[in-house]
């Protein structure tokens, strides 16, 4: 809870507290509730404030989707007061329209290409924080190979944090993660007939 | 899920879709998992991108707490490309130190004063989005009267969205909310002895 919180137990792994503290984290935000991506972009705020290079990889295409976050993070990067933010749109292959999945030509190819870019950036240590937004969907649909993703993440060099968002995160991804939060929908205005609105949904 | 999602049912309330769409929302992020506040600050990003005046009311004091978000939102506001962000520190009365609650002199008075400011701003329609960060704690501790909060929120004029974060949100607050997400901890590095680290926890 507190930033300076005491760990609940000290592991017998031969590492100092600082070495453990400085470990790169694999973070997953999953579940059917809201806030998965929003919280990931909140982490991007913190990363920017730390002066980190932040890479956002957006695995969905939509006219409205993430435009607020993209505008804000680009504006932040432009201030020069913190880190950099590089925004990659990897999801030209698919989008949500009226809650229905809409596929472009060769969506699997576009997703695989997106992942290949991430793998290259991880190998090159391009960023200190990676937001892989909605990556769970192409993983679930088999467009990106889960085993390869897990292998690349496990072998990533240096100190690179990775946040993956989306529903139905595969169990093996949760096993590999250091920090997993499930966002659960308790109540949502769409349940009582309200439609999404700007500033809240996008 | 999609920004343009179809409502699951249409209520018999005599309102047009646009009137329902434009309703001000009371949003609660609760639960023991991470991401409650982070997602609220992500909403602040969206609000800023919409050009809204955003008010943040921080109900906890800490040297590290929210400094990244504060730096980022202040920098965004300074760009002049979106809305404004006003950051209020209302929690001079308490803080978390090493996961223990640390109280200053008259914490209840400070919290009550903080709430009075919010009530004034709601009445004056000062902001379009209010982030009431960690408000659930002073509510739980009785420093701020829950019934008064509910009455003020229910009677707020105009089109003001309110996001309240914190563990153990009172049931009556959840009843009053339009959108509730529970963040559940599935796995956390502190469980295996890892301490919080910069860029992730603050």
From TrEMBL, chains A, B:
MF terms (GO), sorted A to Z: ATP binding; corrinoid adenosyltransferase activity
Lineage: Bacteria, Bacillati, Actinomycetota, Actinomycetes, Frankiales
InterPro entries per UniProt: CblAdoTrfase_CobA, P-loop_NTPase
SUPFAM superfamilies named in the record: P-loop containing nucleoside triphosphate hydrolases (SSF52540)
Stretch list, region Disordered: 1-23
GO biological process: one example: cobalamin biosynthetic process
Species annotation: Parafrankia colletiae
Protein name: Cob(I)yrinic acid a,c-diamide adenosyltransferase
Stored Gene3D superfamilies: P-loop containing nucleotide triphosphate hydrolases
Coiled coil region boundaries: none
Keyword annotations: Transferase
Origin superkingdom: Bacteria
């Amino acid at each position: 809870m507190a930033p300076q919180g005491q760990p609940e137990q000290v592991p017998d792994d031969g590492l100092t507290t600082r070495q453990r503290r400085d470990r790169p984290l694999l973070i997953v935000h999953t579940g059917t509730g809201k806030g998965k991506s929003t919280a990931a972009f909140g982490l991007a705020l913190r990363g920017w404030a730390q002066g980190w290079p932040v890479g956002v990889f957006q695995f969905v295409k939509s006219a409205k989707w993430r435009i607020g976050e993209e505008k804000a993070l680009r504006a932040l990067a432009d201030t020069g007061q913190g880190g950099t933010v590089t925004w990659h749109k990897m999801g030209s292959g698919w989008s949500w329209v009226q809650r229905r999945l809409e596929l472009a030509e060769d969506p699997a190819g576009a997703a695989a290409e997106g992942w290949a870019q991430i793998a290259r950036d991880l190998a090159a240590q391009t960023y200190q924080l990676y937001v892989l937004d909605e990556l769970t969907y192409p993983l679930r649909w088999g467009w990106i190979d889960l085993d390869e993703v897990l292998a690349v993440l496990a072998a990533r060099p240096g100190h690179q944090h990775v946040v993956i968002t989306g529903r139905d995160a595969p169990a093996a991804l949760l096993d590999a993660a250091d920090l997993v939060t499930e966002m659960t929908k308790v109540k949502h205005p769409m349940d009582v007939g309200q439609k999404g609105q700007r500033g809240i949904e996008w």
